[in-house]
Specification:
This protein is an alpha+beta fold. Helix content is about 45%, strand content about 20%. The chain contains six helices and five strands. The protein is globular. About 30% of the residues are buried. Bound molecules: zinc ion.
Length: about 140
Amino acid sequence: MLDTRAVYRFERICESAFPKALTRDAPMAELQALAARIWAERKMEGELYVRANTGTSHDGKKISYCETGRVKEGYAYADIVLARHERSPYVLLHEMAHALGHHQHGPSFVHCYIELLVEYGGMDRATLVDMMLAGGVRL
Ligand SMILES: [Zn+2]
């Protein structure tokens, strides 16, 4: 997964460049409220869950993830699990880009992630694009 590696590399590079407000540990209630706000403002249908749990394994680490699906002929859902040490606003925004329908880490995901970082993280779009290109992210 070249895109995945590039996005994770971008995040490692940028963690130090992100404002502290985005990288700090945040209470789950705050992250859940932010997620619910984005979900409502994007007029998404179905259920959104944001939970603290163990996460999934990736390169020997436990990381956050988002699973989306549909309950048998019923409502759609997105289930975000935030791993320990990853309960910060920027990780939530990453997972929200998946929840909003961008499943891989390709260009459509990256554009959505940028939108969220600009709109809800107060980041500058041009700066983000520069950092992503420097990190080898495909736009
Ligand atoms: Zn991801």
